[in-house]
Amino acid sequence: MSSADLERLARALAVVEQQARGLPWAEERAWRVQSHLWVEGEGLVVDLHDLSVKLAGRAVQEVGAVAGSLSAGSVSFVTGVGRRSLGPPKLGRAVQGELARLCRAQGWSHAPGRAGRWILILDGRRAPSQLGWPFWLGAFAFGLLALALVPPLGVVVLLVLIAAWWRGR
Fold it and tell me: pTM of the predicted model, to two decimals?
């Protein structure tokens, strides 16, 4: 991932920033590329807080338009968990739907990330792993249990887990 990726996304999202100035809450909570786009580890992050559902969808479309030229393996979209929503969270569902359309058209994939994020996976080999240590601890505990109860199966499970962990490092 390079600084060129960040610049490319900033240019693509400039139109969203301009349209966000017209939102009713823009004076209090402005959406700016400078504050809502950053690098995290090996991936890019676009925070969609402070956008309307419609503009969040537009942001996903704008990212999708340049995503094929990015060296990063993924782009994360922060949607939150809907604490300000009346009823079910609207932003996350809208972003998920937009990502699904984009992925069908481009052959990419998407997945839920940790708390309130959706990840556009452009290249699974270059995308940072979203699986934290609690997942791997639980998976290895399951492998050890399988080893104790059904040794041949346990060996296979542990070997698969070790290979997956090693590949994702």
Answer: 0.73
